[in-house]
Amino acid sequence: MKRIALYLTLAILTASSALIAQTTPAPQDLQVPASSPTAARTLKTTGKAKKPVTSIKPFSRLAFSGGISAMGINMQAAVNASQHINIRGIGNYFNYNVNNISTNGLNLNGKLNFASAGAAVDFYPSPNHGFRISPGALFYNQNAASANVTVSGGTSFSLNDVTYYASSTNPITGNGSLGLNTNKQAFTITTGWGNMIPRRGGHWSAPFEIGAAMIGVPAINVALTGGQACNAQGQNCVNVATDPTVQANLQAQIAKYKNDLNPFRFYPIVSFGVAYSFNLR
Q1: Does the predicted model carry a pTM greater than 0.85?
Q2: Which one is the CATH code of 61-279: 2.40.160.170, 2.40.50.840, 2.60.120.260, 3.40.50.2000?
């Protein structure tokens, strides 16, 4: 009986110890009220907490932006497809007169006409940050330049390293064009910073983008349609529009221009602006 009583006593003591251990909080589990001096000191030392990323439903927010780019005045619209992805539409438009440009003695006066539209998928590896990678495409590309070509009377010009002089009585006239749209539909790849639809809430952002569009080798053409080209003494003048030697040298010069333009098959994309986003639902 004494042994049984001893066993019961030990069991009661063990159970009591376990109960006390479960109901007594450990020092690291103790919480200090936020209003206490200790909490205030803790917040002061740790600094202000960052605003958490807001989880938003797909296709629940829309954003518009305006800015400038290497393709002209830039307008964009974006919608969120997921926490990491936006779908973005892009449009650019710009007209600009260019005057008094000279190449090989040929004087150019014309206009730049920029008009393009496309779309891109913006992938944000971390919604906490604005860095993104954006594959896309230009599905409308009418970027081009056109110009009138003149050579004043008595002025020299060269074609394929052959020097001519415009007739004093019948100066040179012609036209030229430059197409930056050999690929009417062009693949684009860009990167940048700034989310048009901020995942931390808010409405305003300032997106920046840099990359390239694969437009193909620019198309260039120059035609001399009137006037006479002479030698240095103003003699042996020929009609530039019909003389086979002048036309052959002109085509060789155009081939050199095309070779110089080969690196520009990748048109630079650089843009920045201001965007505003709002809830759709």
Answers
A1: no
A2: 2.40.160.170
